[in-house]
Structures are given as C-alpha cells and as structure tokens.
Amino acid sequence: YRATGRGFTIKHEKFAELYRFYAFSHFYRAVELVFLLILFRAYGTFSWCNCSWTQDAEFYNYFKPSDNDWRTRCYANYYQTCVEPTNQNYGVMSYSLWIIAATWLWAPFFFNPSGFDWDKLIEDYNDWQNWLKTTNDSAASWSGWWSNEVEYLEHSTTGARVVSMIRKMRFFFVAYGMYLQLAYKTYYEDQDLEIEKGSMISYALSGLMFILVLLLLCCGYIASRVKKKMTFKQKKLRKIKFVLSCCGLLVACASLLVISLVNLLEIFIIILISAYWFLQLCLYRNQTNHVVVRAMARSYDRWVGWIILGPVLFIAMFLPFLSSFQQRVMFNNAFTSGLEVSKLFSNEAASSTSKVVKIKRVAKKKKRSD
Asked: TM segments (predicted)?
C-alpha cells in the first residue's frame, strides 16, 4: 500500500526492487541461517552410544576396540538400552529457526499483491535478469546498487573494519571445520584408523586448508595483474579460458575415480564458503571496484536470488490456488471478486486481439481512357 493523500493505492513491487530493499537486511542472513540449519542436519549428532565397551568386554577379549567398531556394535546390539535414551529430534530442535528463515526469505512475496501470480513472476524474473546484466552506475542496475550499498566502507574507521573482519571470520571457521570433518572421514573413519598422538599426517591434513587460502590469494593477485596488462588479443584470451576449463573438467573426472560424489560436493561447498570469506575481506580492504570482486559479488547475488525465487516459481506453477488464497487474506471479498473478474476480462481481451482478421481486398478496375 502506498499513501496518496486520497486513500491508498495498491502496487505490485517487482522482485528486483524487493531484492534491492531486503538483500543486506534479510535475504543474506536468511540464506546463511538456512545453510547453517542444513549443516547442522548433515554434521550434527542426534543420538550416541551411552555405554562403555566394557559392557561387552568378553567379545573383545578384554582389549579396547576402536571407537568406530564399538559404535557400530552398540547400535546393532544395544540400541534400546544404550542409544534410544539419547535420541533427539532434529525437527523439534530446529523448527523455530526454519520458520524464522522462511519468514525472512518469502514474507515480502506473501505481502506483495499478486506475489504468487505466474505472469507477474515471469515479468519479475526478466526484469531481475536485466537488472543483473546492466553495467552502468544508475540506480536501476546492479552495479549502481552495489556501489551505493558498500559506499559506507570508504568512510569507516580502521577499528570498525577490523571488528567487521573478525566477525566475518565465521565463514572461514565454518569452511575449516567442514574440511577437518571431510579429512577425518576420508582418511581415518573410512579406513577404520585412529588419530595417533603426535602424528604428522594429522598436522599435514590440517594445514592443507591454509594452502587453499593461499591459492585464493594468488588467484586474486593473478587476476588483478591480468586485468592491468590486458594487452593480448581476445582470441588468445578465449584460448586460455578454454584450456583452463578443459583442465578443470579433467581434474573433476579424475577425482571421481578416487573421491565419491558426496565428498566432491563437500569440497565444492568448502570452496564456495572460502571464496565468500575472501570476498568479504576484499570489501573491507576497500577493493569494492575490483573487477574480480564485482564478478564474485554478482555471482553470489544471482545464486541468492535463485534460492529465493526458485521455490516461489515452483509454487506458482504447481500450486496456483495459493495466489487466490493470498488475495483472500490480503483483500476483502468485494475487491477479490472484482480482481478475478478483471483477470477474466483481460484474458478475453487478449484472446480476442490475438485473432487474425483477414480483410478481403476488392480489386478496382482501371478506367479505360478513351
């Protein structure tokens, strides 16, 4: 609703406008919360063996088994007595946070008139794509909006930037924790090994994450140098991109022979989180106008937009009655019925104008000149 002085007028806000208004305040936080909830479900422990291996000491001949061996036997033979009392329900523990995340993501659509209408959503999607692709610095482009949103960093003090960078370290710690879990599962748990005290292998596996960070820094430096010395021709640049793409594809196919698809997905997520942390560091170092930083930020905004708009498009396509339900909730019966009638008339008008009318042309006979 918008105040006009003579009452209120109703307007459908486009998705690009909603994204500009709610991205930094709600959408980014909601996507982060959804990711943490999924991470909690994937890596969380909701039941464990509450008994000691001494309960079955005769089976092991009074030799302490490995943790994985005892956990497997405990779940198989002593589930009701040792495991079932520790069961915790993930849904009961996290449903309130899921409601908060869903509210932050999709409440603007529910309170937006015709927010679940299919035709309106298609128009919003096309407008959002044009907004992302526009490269000028106007307010109707992604570049202009991004520059306005991060402009405050230029006037921030050094202490404020340091505090913000410390807060953004949470992304690095999440990626590092996922990497440690992946390394432990791949090298120790799958091979039924235990971490030995003082083993150099564990320290080497822990340090590989820092090598990934150094690679990201090197990639950023190389990209900046290439941008400054872009003297070679476009054909040569395309050839380099093609060679790098082929090398990446070969590495991915070769890794499938050694690493499972789930582990590859985990590695991809770790790289995404590390790259997002690197992006945040670049922002607080006043590198907002760098071509690599802008390309990364635009890519993340495109993914966040798909996370938000994808379920709404699915609902509008397969559950169209929710659009009518939204109208019933937001407006009174008279306005809702009038809106439905206007839609019917607009469809009839569109169908009538789409018909091709053929006009017969009457050929005029030329007058003969005497």
From this structure: 21-43, 92-111, 171-188, 200-222, 242-261, 267-284, 304-322
